[in-house]
Amino acid sequence: MKKANNQLCADAGSKYCPCHLAYSGDCIKCPITRGEKVCDCLWQGVCIYNELQHNKNVPVCERKETLCKINEVNELGNETFLIKINVPKSMLIDLCSPGAFVLIKSKDRSSDIFNTPISVMDVDFENSILEVVIKPRGIKTKNIINFEEVWVKGPYFNGIFGIKQIKSAYQKNTLVILNGLSQVNSINVVKRLLENKNNVVVFINNQATILDVIIEKLKELGVNIQSTDLNEDRDFLIDYIRRNNVEFVYSGGADLFNKYIMDIVDSVDPNIDLAISNSNLICCGEGICGACTIEVNGKRIKSCKAQIDSRAFLNSKNL
Asked: Which Gene3D superfamilies does this chain map to (predicted)?
């Protein structure tokens, strides 16, 4: 695995860069801003250090919190809700990226401590609608469905590790494997893979929660969907990857599930590109609070912003 300073920041090159971390000398990407003497960031975009020097007297471009109208709430079963929210088109444009998420809190909450990260399921540009799925559990999410408006802050981009592999996959045989509520962020992944003319097949674990709304959207995209017991059919999955020359796999599930899929993929070929859902704790989304910090190969990494090699991450989790 590359050194921590060679990790790609999900915000690098966006309008949110340089961020507060760069100004404080803690930039994820740029070693010069951290006081190091050698520039080895391998970044091929606009130089973060130069941008920082030019913008010293310019306020950091921060994500805005917007009070948005809830257009529709539908119960999907098992205390899970599909929420359609009217959001500004300026925000919606970025929310179609794989791994995009927002911070949402109920209308009656003013403090940012009530923000909860929610993965983007889908966007409707024509009607300026953001679609998310929420399972109300704790104090942060219980009240969201009880109001006609919610606070939405975003966009954020690091809900997936392996975004580069997703965006660079072109005309390949690809496999998307989904488990439980993590299937929600698969729509943007599948859309990007299809845009890049990849052959996409989706396996869904039928021993976990299956959301019909996700199945319907995947069918509309025209992909082949297979519902299977991924524990019982391990050998079938291995054979499928081998026979179909699969070159890229996306695993959307909790860490244990993703580790299980990684082991299957690696048993065929450890060189197959692998991307996984980011299931880490995220609080502020800006790498400031430290709640998302994890250790990978002896390096402390802010997992809400830094892209991490999927295999290095899963092997570091002691699963």
From this structure: 3.10.20.30, Translation factors (2.40.30.10)
On the question of pLDDT at 56 being above 80, the answer is no
Place of tokens 């399921």: 121
Which is nearest to 117 in space by CA: 130, 107, 106, 102? 102
Please, are residues 237 and 229 in contact by the beta-carbon 8 Å criterion?
no
Which of residues 43 and 312 earns the better pLDDT score?
312
Give dist(CA 250, CA 192) in Å, integer.
12
**pLDDT tens digits for range 267-311:** 999 999 999 999 998 999 999 999 999 999 888 999 999 999 999
Please report the domains of the chain, with CATH numbers, ordered by start residue.
64-156 (2.40.30.10), 160-279 (3.40.50.80)
Rounded Cα distance, 248 and 272, in Å: 6
The CA-CA-CA angle for residues 239, 219, 230, to 5°, reads 30
pTM: 0.93
Q: Which helix (H) or strand (E) holds 240?
A: helix 234-243
pLDDT at 6: 62
Whole-number Å distance between alpha carbons of 111 and 256: 33
